[in-house]
DNA sequence: CGGTATCCAATTGGATACTG
DNA sequence: CAGTATCCAATTGGATACCG
């Protein structure tokens, strides 16, 4: 019976993109427009954000509401399914906070820049 | 003040390897030898496991104790630092369980095999 | 048995250019 | 403003072979 293993992989598959968890976390505070998300995550690249949003939508974690205006306006929000991640997301933040030095590998990565 | 963003990334960096969270989860039950971990995660490849264990060790999440015997015997266990992840890991399992259909993308991936 | 050392294939993040 | 469509560079998982 290794359902646990499968369950972990299911969750990781959904949360582990370079910025996915961060995007989801931002959306826990409420609906955001594309540009707003981008502004709140300065380091993310335009194209990257689009890709990750699309995957999150395909995975059923977020809603995408597009207004037929010019200029376009698109809003993203969590689905119920995605909202169930809220608790997990706060724990991601907390663990990172309690161990707030970066990981050894992340440090190494930064030293190179 | 976007410490949250940084914290999430810190945590993800440590947990997001194809099998890292699973390995950590297995180790929450106690110390395991290399071969035992491999047996408990049948799909993982020898070389992949070695790489991920090394990274987890570098990140300070697990201890590696090698016995100078022939044949070799190596045991892995969680550090205190890694043990703090336990709570998070159980939540990964729970979310996956409550949403136990695979993600849409994961399903697609499976259909191809 | 558990490990190193190489090399390779696949994935993924991101750069660039163009659209309504 | 938000989105396609390409293409590319970097990373990562894994295959293979050999070692103490």
TrEMBL record, chains A, B:
Keywords: DNA-binding, Transcription, Transcription regulation. This is Transcriptional regulator. GO terms for molecular function: DNA binding. Residues 5-104 form the HTH hxlR-type domain. InterPro entries: HTH_HxlR, WH-like_DNA-bd_sf, WH_DNA-bd_sf.
